[in-house]
Design goal:
This protein is an alpha/beta fold. It has helices at about 10-25, 40-50, 75-85, 105-125, 140-150, 190-195, 225-230; strands at about 5-10, 55-65, 90-95, 130-135, 155-160, 185, 200-205, 210-215. Helices cover about 35% and strands about 20% of the residues. The longest helix is centred in the middle third of the chain and has 19 residues, at about 105-125. The radius of gyration is 20 Å and the shape is globular. The structure holds zinc ion. Zinc ion binds near residues 207, 210 and 222.
Length: about 230
């Protein structure tokens, strides 16, 4: 029987630390990340380390949105979250927050939600054997220790600091005792694998039904002619 892994993604942490992927690739302006592949890459690492089959049963993502009352537009972020849910199969937990108040609020909500979910799943018999935490914050230490008392194992995923060095002592879970069961993994070590490579595929236009080659992987496709018409309206 293969082991079950469950990924827990701290959305705010991943957003900040995706720059370590860009740095590794030498892409100062950033590049697209293959979010469908990202958790699977770390699951494979766990499988290789244990030399056992490990199946990824779920990816839980925790993020925030500026509340409707604020003047910030959240449509782009909403679209991104929808993409993660529909196209990448993530289980989303999103919370609307008031922006502009105290700065640390976003992170606090994400950390509490992630910790509660990790603890809840750890207490559910048969839910997972290994939790892959994509997010590195010292506040997670107590919940990781408790999760391990349930007999679950923890894989930490962090990122190298600028210059490709290990995160400093006192800033990362990797220096904490009893919080994990494997050597830490670094997202930037997998930069090439998680970079999104767009393939040319033939897709049918939703408007006119014609086929056209495209690299667009979103849920709805419109051909160049129909997109042009739409723009001129
Ligand atoms: Zn068309």
């Amino acid at each position: 029987m293969s082991l079950k892994a469950m990924a827990f993604i701290d959305g705010a942490w991943l957003y900040r630390n995706r720059t370590s992927i860009f740095a590794k690739l030498g892409e100062a302006n950033g590049c697209e990340i293959d979010y469908a592949k990202l958790p699977r890459v770390f699951c494979e690492d766990v499988a290789n380390y244990l030399d056992e089959d490990v199946g990824l049963v779920r990816t839980n993502y925790f993020g925030t949105l500026p509340s409707a009352r604020s003047s910030f537009s959240s449509s782009k972020q909403r679209a991104f979250y929808e993409f993660l849910e529909r196209s990448c199969g993530y289980e989303m937990e999103i919370h609307e927050v008031d922006v502009g108040g105290d700065g640390g609020h976003d992170d606090m909500w994400i950390k509490m939600a992630l910790g509660a979910s990790l603890m809840f799943n750890a207490a559910m018999p048969g839910s997972f054997d290994v939790a892959i935490l994509i997010g590195d914050d010292l506040d997670y230490a107590p919940v990781l220790r408790r999760t391990r008392l349930f007999g679950r194992r923890i894989q930490l995923v962090t990122a190298h600091a600028s210059g490709g060095v290990q995160p400093a002592v006192g800033t990362s879970l990797i220096w904490k005792s009893r919080v994990s069961d494997f050597p830490p993994l670094y997202i930037d070590d997998h930069a090439e694998e998680v970079r999104l490579v767009r393939e040319n595929v033939k897709r049918v236009c939703k408007q006119c039904g014609r086929e056209e080659e495209t690299t667009w992987a979103g849920p709805e496709f419109f051909c160049s002619t129909c997109r042009g018409k739409y723009r001129n309206n």
